[in-house]
Batch of 3 targets.
Target 1
Amino acid sequence: MRFARALRHLITPPWLARRRFPERALDAIEAAIRACEAEHAGEVCFAVEAALGPGELWRGVTARERAVEAFSELRVWDTAANNGVLIFVLLADHDVEIVADRGAAAAVAPEAWEAACHAMEEHFRAGRFEEGSVAGVRAVGALLAQHFPAEAGDRNELRDRPRVS
């Protein structure tokens, strides 16, 4: 366990996620998810966590591993076409991870997901959390629209409201 990382997680308070993502930001992200899902048949989920717990730090859980756990916990994998995508933000690590279900992962190159993550991280470094999140949702939506065009009768399978913890 790296000391600097552990310290960063231990001193990052849970309320920091709510400060970086207040209700107006959550409303904007939710609206962006709804708008982009009207353009494709995929499902987008957005989750923010302030920091890892002591047990996760002790086990050396990475931001990517935690994102995969959240993907499962939030049941993003449970879509009919296996095209759910989780955008996961771990504030203490200054990291954004995108986890795509097998249908979406097979259709979109990993470099495209990484580009969306890096663009969001640049906004976040400048303190533009709402703007960066909306831009990330739009980028993911554009990737999904290329491979999963909107279909008549497509239903919303995942909650659009971002999860913050």
Note: The chain is about 55% helix and 15% strand.
Target 2
Amino acid sequence: MSEEWVAVATFSQPVEAHLALTKLESEGVLCIVSDEYVVSVNWLLSGAVGGVKVMVPASEAEFARDLLRPQPHLVQVADETHARDSDDEDLVCPQCRSVDAYFHRFHRRVAGLAWLAFGFIVPWLSQRWVCKQCDYQWKERGTTIDE
């Protein structure tokens, strides 16, 4: 007699279920996707059928649930001495020496107005680095944006 299959995860879209299926198959778990065609034909039925289900044999259910459980992201915090000695000066804020900076490509209002006026975003409008710690802004090495 065959083993019972149980649902270990449900999703509203078939593509999400197939991502989970790929994760499980990469770990060697035998699994299938159920009700994907019902939801694909009429997505309003997703709630009625209980969503798209990823099913595994009952003996592998606990292992499969552990694999699909979200894992906390590991964050590496650089110490201040590493930030001061870094060779990559673009990633270090010139004002507070923080390494917590990001590249800001477009100002939202300017990009929206450019999109409405020209039909595309002008790429050179507002490219700059912004420090998350002190909100200091700079364009490149040795240049700053005056506010």
Note: The first strand starts at residue 5 and ends at 11.
Target 3
Amino acid sequence: MVKIVNYQKRENEEGNPFFVLELQGGIEVVKSQDSGKFYVTARKTTISSTFDELTCQSLIGSELPGRIVKVSCAPYEYTIKETQEVITLSHRYEYVDENVVSKTEKSNSTIEEFMSKNPIGTAFSTNGHFVEQD
């Protein structure tokens, strides 16, 4: 589950305003690459909406089924607000619907289940084609 924690007003290319909802996942413990110490954080992302400002305000605190996942992307520069340090990132966070998450997990477990029940003498090659083993 993710929680709606805030909203932001933005403009599209034509200059028309719209609102995005800020989503936050559960807390997670991360180890600092610099100090080696652990800290607690939460993944955040935004999602576009068709809601007006009053509706967005009323949705703060609501939960949605799903999670926020880390997705690779082309490198880009990001400025840390507190320190003004500019860093290069090659990932972003996206909201994934619970139904999509459970379908992916289900298909992965089905493959693993099949492989564990696969009779000796047969296997899948690394390119995904069925091959007979001698």
Note: The longest helix spans residues 98-117.
